């Protein structure tokens, strides 16, 4: 059991620069305790100062280094951490992306996860991802980014390049959703030349787009506020309002796309819109319409 938990943190069980060596039963409280200390770059005092939310980010857990904030969030959620808590790390050693891909997470980015306790069934989870995309886009607008766009389902783009990804995961018990973990990775103060070669042409960073470093703490605070606002719409089932915000920032609708499904299945289509459940509606080359619930969507023009 202890070994498993160590793996959850990172290879050496090293969390926030401290070696965890506690009783298994004390693990959750050790993890919580360490998350209450300040780190060099991410400061709870700065984020909490004038934070205008009721529950999102009221409880902050900040780490110097973890395997993945989503993994820590899942672990803490199972140990009863409350709705809206945010887990933030300066660095992730095994950051996770969609479709089992890894996610580069060096110092300088914003890597965070929010624990939610929504009273919903599985069909509504894609809408949480779309709502989070809107919250990120609005955050970027507030810090001075012109025209951030959302590529279905969850990539935030600036000038056609990805600056942020979202990974939504659920914690279930006998098929009942107990928590949803919303993981957000923003390439903030990063140098594009440090990215792997294959990502350099398709990725951007806030530092590059804004021609200067961004205040990471302000970025996080603004996101927490935007996230709560849109999550309130979600909780009150105002799904159409969320979709309206999403559509007005869409990078996908009106473009020719390639839909890539598992097992190398792919086809070209024209993206017409987004359904009320958050699926992408496409028109295939034979004229038939399809709702794409999951899969990769590559823009062709
Ligand atoms: C994607 O576009 O593939 C999703 C990337 C999600 C990355 C974030 S960073 C914070 C959280 N922790 C993770 O391990 N992943 C998400």
Can you describe this structure?
There is one protein chain. The protein folds into two domains: 2-248, BirA Bifunctional Protein, domain 2, CATH 3.30.930.10; 256-299, SH3 type barrels (Roll), CATH 2.30.30. It has nine helices and 14 strands. Helix 5 crosses helix 8 (216-235) and helix 5 (125-142) crosses helix 9 (239-247). The chain has helices at 2-9, 24-35, 44-48, 69-78, 125-142, 197-200, 206-209, 216-235, 239-247, and strands spanning 14-15, 18-19, 60-66, 86-92, 110-116, 149-151, 155-158, 161-173, 176-186, 256-260, 266-274, 280-284, 289-292, 296-299. The model has no long low-confidence stretch (mean pLDDT 91). By secondary structure, the chain is of the alpha+beta class. The strands form three sheets. The protein has a seven-stranded mixed sheet, sandwiched between helices. The chain has a five-stranded antiparallel sheet with strand order 13-12-11-10-14, with no helix packed on it. 40% of the residues are buried. The structure holds biotin (BTN).
């Amino acid at each position: 059991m202890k070994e498993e938990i160590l793996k959850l943190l990172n290879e050496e069980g090293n969390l926030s620069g401290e070696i965890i060596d506690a009783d298994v039963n004390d693990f959750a409280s050790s993890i919580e305790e360490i998350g209450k200390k300040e780190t060099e770059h991410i400061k709870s005092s700065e984020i909490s100062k004038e934070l205008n939310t009721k529950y999102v980010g009221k409880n902050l857990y900040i780490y110097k280094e973890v395997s993945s904030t989503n993994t820590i969030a899942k672990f803490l959620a199972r140990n009863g951490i409350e709705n809206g808590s945010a887990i933030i790390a300066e660095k992730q050693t095994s950051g996770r992306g969609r479709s089992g891909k890894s996610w580069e997470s060096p110092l300088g980015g914003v890597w965070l996860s929010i624990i939610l306790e929504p009273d919903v069934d599985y069909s509504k989870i894609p809408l949480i991802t779309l709502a989070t995309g809107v919250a990120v886009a609005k955050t970027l607008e507030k810090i001075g980014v012109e025209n951030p766009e959302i590529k279905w389902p969850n990539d935030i783009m600036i000038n056609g390049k990805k600056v942020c990804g979202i990974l939504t995961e659920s914690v279930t018990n006998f098929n009942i959703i107990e928590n949803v973990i919303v993981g957000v990775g923003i390439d903030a103060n990063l140098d594009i030349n440090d990215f792997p070669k294959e990502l350099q042409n398709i990725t951007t960073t806030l530092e590059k787009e804004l021609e200067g470093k961004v205040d990471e703490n302000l970025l996080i605070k603004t996101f927490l506020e935007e996230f709560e606002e849109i999550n309130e719409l979600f909780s009150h089932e105002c799904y159409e309002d969320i979709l309206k915000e999403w559509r007005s920032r869409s990078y996908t609708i009106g473009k020719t796309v390639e839909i890539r499904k598992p097992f190398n299945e792919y086809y070209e289509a024209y993206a017409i819109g987004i359904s009320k459940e958050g699926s992408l509606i496409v028109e295939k080359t034979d004229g038939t319409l399809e709702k794409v619930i999951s899969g990769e969507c590559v823009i062709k023009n």
